[in-house]
Amino acid sequence: MSGESSKAALGRRIAATVATNTSGTPAYELPWVEKYRPVFLEDIVGNSETVERLKIIGKDGNMPHLIISGMPGIGKTTSILCLARALLGDTYKEAVLELNASDERGIDVVRNRIKGFAQKKVTLPLGRQKIVILDEADSMTAGAQQALRRTMEIYSSTTRFAFACNQSNKIIEPLQSRCAILRYSRLTDSQVLRRLLEICVAEKVEHSEEGLAALIFSAEGDMRQAINNLQSTVAGFGFVSADNVFKVVDSPHPIAVQALIKACYTGKIDVALEKLEELWGKGYSAIDIISTMFRVTKTIDTLSEHSKLEFIKVIGFAHMRILEGVSTLLQLRGCIAKLTKINMPPELFVPKEESTDE
Ligand SMILES: Nc1ncnc2c1ncn2[C@@H]1O[C@H](COP(=O)(O)OP(=O)(O)OP(=O)(O)O)[C@@H](O)[C@H]1O
Ligand SMILES: [Mg+2]
C-alpha cells in the first residue's frame, strides 16, 4: 500500500467523495485542507530528502524519537500521522496516543496519561512500537517536558515519541538530545502550485494563471493557507482570478504596491504618496502595506541589485518601527521619502544655501 502513487491516492479520495455525495448524504463540504490532507507519506509535497527518511523508517520500523520543526502549514503534523499509519496500519487506533495544544499537557498528564499509555500492553508486529504524538510541542511547559525525560528512556523499548513544533529551540535541550531532529523548510512556489493544480482538477475549479500566482504569492510557502484561500475564493466568487484572490486574502494588491515602488525608484514622490494614500484609504493597515512592499520589492527585476538591497534595508527599518507600535501613515510616508531618495541622481541634492539664493 505504501507504494501507491500520489495520483492513485488522490483519485481514490475523489472517488470516495463522489460516492458520499451520490449516496444521499447531505453534500456538505469538508474544508479542502482536510479533504486533501495526505494519507500516505508518498503524497506529501516537498522536503523530499526528509520525507524519504521517514519512508524508510515507515518500511523498516524501529522509529527513533523524532522532532519535526518548521513553519506553520507545511506538513509536519501530516507527516507524523502518515508515518504512524505506515508503521502501525490497523493497530493505529490502539497504539497511538495523540495529544495537541488543545489537550491538557501539564506534568499531571505526563505522569498519568502518557505513562499509563506507555505501560499499556498492545500486541504489535515485530519491530513496531507504540507512538506518542505530541503536536505543537513548543507550547508545552518546560516542567512537563522535564517530566518526559525519564519516561522516554524507561519505556523506549515499547514506546516512541514524535514531537511537532514550529520552533525547535522551545523544546528543552535534554529532549532534543534524545531525538532525531528533522527540519522542514517552507514549500517552494512550484510545489505549492502543483498541489493547487491537483486540487483544481479534482474540484473542477475555474481559474486563471494569475489567480494561482496570487494564491502562491500570498501564501508564502504555507500550503494550508494556499489551499484555504483557494477554497474561500471559489466559495466567494466561483472563479479564481488575481483580483478575487486579493479580495479574499484582504491584503493590498501587489500590482498597486508595485506601482508605488516603481514611482519611488523613478523619483516620482508625488505619485508614490498618492498611491500610498489610496491604499491607506482602502483601510489596509501599515503592517499589511509594508509587508507587501517587502515582498513586491524582492520580485522586481528592473531594480538594480544595489538599489534593491537599499530598498529592502529602508523597508526593513520601517517594518521594525511599525512592529514596535508606530503604525501611522506618517511612518509610511517617511519610508516612501527615503526610498525615493535612494535612486535620485546626486545633482538633485542641491545644498540649501544655493537653492534659496534670494
Ligand atoms: N507538504 C504538504 N503536502 C501536501 N499537503 C500539505 C503539505 N503541507 C500542508 N499541507 C496541507 O495543509 C494542511 C495542514 O498541514 P499540517 O497540519 O501538516 O501543517 P503543520 O506543518 O503541522 O502546521 P502547524 O505548524 O500549523 O501545525 C494539510 O491538511 C494539507 O492539506
Ligand atoms: Mg501541526
Can you give a write-up of this model?
The relative contact order is 0.09. Helices cover 58% and strands 8% of the residues. It has a 5-stranded parallel β-sheet with strand order 2-3-4-1-5, sandwiched between helices. The chain has a two-stranded parallel sheet with strand order 6-7. It is an alpha/beta fold and 358 residues long. It has 18 helices and 7 strands. The chain is elongated, with a radius of gyration of 26 Å. Residues 76-77, 135, 164 line the site of magnesium ion.
Question: Fraction of residues in helices?
Answer: 55-70%
Largest sheet: 5 strands, parallel
Bound ions, cofactors and other small molecules, one mention each: adenosine-5'-triphosphate, magnesium ion
| Secondary-structure element pattern, one letter each | HHHEHHEHEHEHEHEHHEHHHHHHH
CATH-assigned homologous superfamily of the largest domain: P-loop containing nucleotide triphosphate hydrolases
- The end-to-end span amounts to 87 Å
- If you average the pLDDT, what whole number results? 87
Query: So how many helices?
Result: 18
Unreliable sequence segments: 1-26
Cα shape = elongated
CATH topology of the largest domain: Rossmann fold
Strand order of the largest sheet: 2-3-4-1-5
Radius of gyration, in angstroms, nearest whole number: 26 Å
Organism: Tuber aestivum
InterPro entries: AAA+_ATPase, ATPase_AAA_core, DNA_pol3_clamp-load_cplx_C, DNA_Rep/Repair_Clamp_Loader, P-loop_NTPase, Rep_factorC_C, RFC_lid
Family: Belongs to the activator 1 small subunits family.
GO molecular function, one term: DNA binding
